[in-house]
Amino acid sequence: MSDREGAIERQVRGFLKEIAPHLAGTIEALDARARLWEVMDSLSLLDLVESLEASFKITIEAIDVTPDHFHTIQSITRFIARRTQPVA
User: Fold this and answer.
1) pTM for this structure?
2) Angle between helices 73-83 and 3-19 in degrees, nearest 10
3) How many CB atoms lie within 10 A of CB 27?
4) CB neighbours of 70 closer than 8 A, spacing ≥ 6?
């Protein structure tokens, strides 16, 4: 994992803890590949999408909110890293 991806992952974990404070310990202990659907509900997912959009200055379309992109902390991190990749 690159330093950039590590920073994104830390932000994603921070958002998850803010959205679901009762799960903060669980979120911190989760492996980056653990399935989020087991600890998050759909409203929390919408809150996460809004937080990601605001923080990273991106638009996440409904079609992008799929298990491929939002299944794990790792998949969210990779999705955001791709969406915020600097243009060469």
Assistant:
1) 0.88
2) 120
3) 22
4) 36, 45, 48, 76, 79
Among 8, 65, 3, 4, smallest CA distance to 40 is for 65
Beta bridge partners of 72: 35
Q: What is the pLDDT of residues 23-77, one digit of tens each?
A: 778 888 888 888 887 778 889 899 999 999 999 999 999 999 998 999 999 999 9
Closest C-alpha among 12, 38, 13, 10 to residue 24? 13
Strand, coil or helix: 86: coil
Distances, alpha carbon 68 to alpha carbons 3, 8, 71, in Å? 22, 17, 6
